[in-house]
Each structure stands twice: as structure tokens, then as C-alpha cells.
Request: fold
Amino acid sequence: MEPSIYDGLRAQALNVRPADLGVKPSGGKAAVYGVVMDMGVPQGTATLVGFVSGDASLYLSTGGAMIGGGGHATVRTSAQDWVQVVQAHLAAFSPTTSFPTPTDEYVRFYVLTSDGVLTATVKIDAVDSGGLELSPVWYAGQRLLTDLRQSQGRPVD
Reply:
């Protein structure tokens, strides 16, 4: 995948609105409707996206993508679960209006809410070892990534 294609898909995910997903934001505190997880790897960036609608995709800055995983029940459920986990950990995120990718060995989360976009960045080794407030968010994202990978080549549910 050319960088411009990757950049376009990533930008599209970061700019999704609830109406694009066919959902209405709930009242009250910031309602999460999407999560973008950028993982810095030696070759570039892997971007996992998941939405309250159950839609999910993976984009690789070095080429390739897994798009439309929401057609599989396991992926839909994992994407929706990820959004719920993030909703429960909103205190770990800060508002942002800029969207850089992380450096190698870091993960940067972007949380799409009814009140704007929130972000947090952490070293992958630290969040993966557990015990951090963002660890449940990371683990839920990894479950979605696993389900998305396992869905490839299988018929849509």
C-alpha cells in the first residue's frame, strides 16, 4: 500500500462521525464511538480501527490492509467490546486536535467521542506487561486484532 493510500485510510478513520456509522451519540459524558490504535513498529505504523457499529480494519503504512472485518460476528463483538473498555478508561486520555503517528516501540490511541478526540501514548512493552491504566485498552485492541486476522479468508457471517 502506498503511503498516500495508508494516510488516506487513516485520516478517514480519524474523521468518522457517529452518523457515518448509523449511530446516535448517547447523552451525558463523552460517548466513545470509535478507537484508532497506531502501533509504531520498526518498518512504520500499524493502525487498528474499531467502531461501536462493529466495523474494524487494520492498515499498514508499509503496505497491506484488512478492511471490512465487521462482516464477521467475532470481529463485530471484539470491536464493540473494545469501545466499551475504552469508555470505562476515559480518564487515561487527554483532548487533542493533532494526530501524529507514534515512534517505534510506542502505541498511540485516538478515541473518537461525542465531545471530540482524546489521545494517550505509551511504550508498547510497558502497556503489554500489564498494570497500567491503559493495559485493558491495549489488551482489548489485541483481541480485536487477533479476531480480525483469524477472520481473513473466511466467509462473512
Summary: The first helix runs from residue 3 to 14. The helical segments are 3-14, 73-88, 124-128, 135-151. The chain has a mean pLDDT of 90. The chain has four helices and seven strands.
